[in-house]
Task: structure prediction
Amino acid sequence: MTDRFRPAARMAGIAPFHVMEVMGRAQAAAAAGRDIVHMEVGEPDFATAEPIVEAGIRALREGHTHYTLALGLPALREAIADFYRRRHGVAVEPRQVVVTVGASGALQLALWALIGPGDEVLLTDPGYPCNRHFVRLAGGVPVELPVSPDTGWQPTAAQIEAALTPRTRAVLLASPANPTGAVIDREELARIAALLRERRVALIADEIYHGLIYEADTCTALACDADAIVVNSFSKYFGMTGWRLGWAVVPEALLRPVEKLAQNLFIAPPTPAQHAALAAFEPATLALLDQRRDEFRARRDLLLPALRGLGFDIPVTPQGAFYIYAGCGRFADDSSALCLRLLDEAGVAATPGLDFGPHTARTHLRFAYTTSRERLGEAIDRLGRLLA
Amino acid sequence: MTDRFRPAARMAGIAPFHVMEVMGRAQAAAAAGRDIVHMEVGEPDFATAEPIVEAGIRALREGHTHYTLALGLPALREAIADFYRRRHGVAVEPRQVVVTVGASGALQLALWALIGPGDEVLLTDPGYPCNRHFVRLAGGVPVELPVSPDTGWQPTAAQIEAALTPRTRAVLLASPANPTGAVIDREELARIAALLRERRVALIADEIYHGLIYEADTCTALACDADAIVVNSFSKYFGMTGWRLGWAVVPEALLRPVEKLAQNLFIAPPTPAQHAALAAFEPATLALLDQRRDEFRARRDLLLPALRGLGFDIPVTPQGAFYIYAGCGRFADDSSALCLRLLDEAGVAATPGLDFGPHTARTHLRFAYTTSRERLGEAIDRLGRLLA
Ligand SMILES: Cc1ncc(COP(=O)(O)O)c(C=O)c1O
Ligand SMILES: Cc1ncc(COP(=O)(O)O)c(C=O)c1O
Result:
């Protein structure tokens, strides 16, 4: 008798988020009355900025509760295009902008439009955990590009060139990256873009942590390659994770396939969120968001030397996002076990390296500075007592 | 030189929504000053009911703007489970309820969890256009079950039995159905459920138009098969299309695969929408929604005899949703051409049969009564003048 609900074979290859185990355990501990410092959470602790919330409320009161066009509100597509002009000095046509259900939706649309069975996509390891699953769901083959502190946790053009095969159809880069906060160097990005253009391989640039960049000089991939597929989101810099809104900038040739997919897969991105996001680009809102970015920088500047002082190995200063990917070889052979120990014995929740790919998994964990400086200070004290 | 942006082979098989062509043309005509009666739109014309909107606004003011758990807010999962008990007298565990990005997200999760390369899924033709694409994206083979007025536009157990092969893994039914408004008979549903249970084939029941049912006696598929995979949404009866919120009820054996997929594909469904939806189940809200359902019934009762009187062939009285699937063989050989003619010459927008599968496409079009009775009356007058 066959099993009526036998999962599709692909399911064996799809990993859950290991951080969820930490989160579940942290919640149980908190419910039992323990005080937990949450450094496992990959989203800003701030609620969405008030001007955005107020625009959302206005939209709801005005009855903007219907489906929009699959590619999003024309006014929002224009505002996003305009943002590229103003912030990056890059020309983007509104018609190239596709509003999506988060960067998650944008990554899916791009990969499903391009990638078929056997096509290879190069991805960094460590990297955002969902990417390899998106590639697999599209029938493609995720090919890992191991990155290390030696190259600032980002791949080089030479490394990518060595990894290209006749089956490579796309390279997916994130800058700033999750979990390392690593920013790709402007010149290296230009070299990579030129290489991929010559080899007719698509460049997919996940710029979801743009706006949360500290000292580094960086640019959108569109400045290096007008045909880059750029993925972005209102989740991080704009502080709108729960609204589920992102976008992609896609080259003309992919617009029609992406539109057909968007119609069928999503019908449309959330409407109240789209109206709210229109307020995100106003100067007063951007000023507020930049203040929050400065707060993230101050947190990094508090946490980074403290972790180094405790003996975590962090040879490259993370330049963006809100993560520190810390080598913990000095404290444990297995970062997953260490994560549980930090939680159980110090009440500090972090994410095990395992979530980000096998390459550096056992020797690293990710601290997110998505909690106040006061709480970070508390975490540092506790870690100090445990690990001293 | 290979084309850098050559779409994946699958894209050739993914159809756009033909209704978009009608909508685009209708918008252009409206922009040029023409008055268009919109009967092509597959969503309630009402804005979301006030108690739901107010709950959404409260949630935003309270800062509920972060990611939730991938399967949704526990309180919402409980409220949905409770709704099955109260409205249908069926026991559903909150843990079986998966909150999703619309029924669209629920259909994807169910199919990707179950269906792999070569697996067959039986789908009605005509039916909801996206379903065959969801099956194809999962690598499966959509197998059409042609339905006709002879069996009330729904498949019979005998027809399904004849179509089963050793490769069939699921049957996807919708009741009430899009585009026909057809409701599956309670006894027939029980026969189908028993058949599929015996043959170890999953039953996926799309109940998105539940709540919008007129005279017919119907029930949730869960009443016939506790292991049915039920897909539903806040879009239609609850009037929340633009919020992008739906749910699935899944059997225990599929919970873990569905959760892993949900984490990776969507992270979580929209948070403000989830909080808003909590207000959807309050008695005062349900009373309001039932009034709207009664208005839809009154519209059907206006439109149906008028269309029949004009010579459209509608042998089965549609029992639910807000659609009339009308045979137009008397007026044209090709319903797509007729749709354009109705738009251009009468200012009435409808959807060509082509969107719903090839079987009855050329001889049918779909009228949605998602506009006021006054506007429906206007449309009837105009159609009368054109087609008389
Ligand atoms: C690198 C990266 N890309 C994409 C995403 C998806 O985010 P969202 O769908 O909320 O935009 C995340 C979320 O953490 C991320 O870290
Ligand atoms: C039969 C059917 N199923 C599913 C959907 C998807 O709706 P949503 O994703 O808004 O819940 C629709 C939308 O029209 C539909 O008609």
Remarks:
- Chain A is about 40% helix and 15% strand.
